[in-house]
Amino acid sequence: MSTPLQPLPLVMTTEEVAAVLRCSVETVERYVHAHELATIRIGRERRFRADDMLDFVASRSTTARTSRNRTRRSKQR
């Protein structure tokens, strides 16, 4: 079952980012504290720009780890 893509809001809450990334709020907070995911302050609240979140996702490695593990396994044999 595929879900239709909807445009992201310009600014999102931690909970919204967690939902988009399909992870927990705690995981989003770890990314923030590790300076991997940028935030902005609006009053006392922390918010995330959609562009910053998309940059974060684009910067993540997708297949390098998988291919590296295959290389190591073949060298061990």
* H-E string: EHHEEHH
Proportion of beta-strand residues: 5-15%
Gyration radius, in Å: 16 Å
Mean pLDDT: 85
Largest sheet entry: 3 strands, antiparallel
Q: Tell me the CATH topology.
A: Multidrug-efflux Transporter Regulator, Chain: A, Domain 2
Low-confidence stretches: none
What is the helical fraction, as a range of percent? 40-55%
CATH architecture identity: Orthogonal Bundle
How many beta-strand segments? 3
Number of domain units: 1
CATH class: Mainly Alpha
Widest sheet: strand order?
1-3-2
* Number of helices, counting only DSSP H or I runs of 4 residues or more: 4
Shape: globular
General description of the model:
The chain has helices at 14-21, 25-33, 50-59, 64-76, and strands at 11-12, 40-42, 45-49. By secondary structure, the chain is of the alpha+beta class. It has a three-stranded antiparallel β-sheet with strand order 1-3-2. The longest helix has 13 residues, at 64-76.
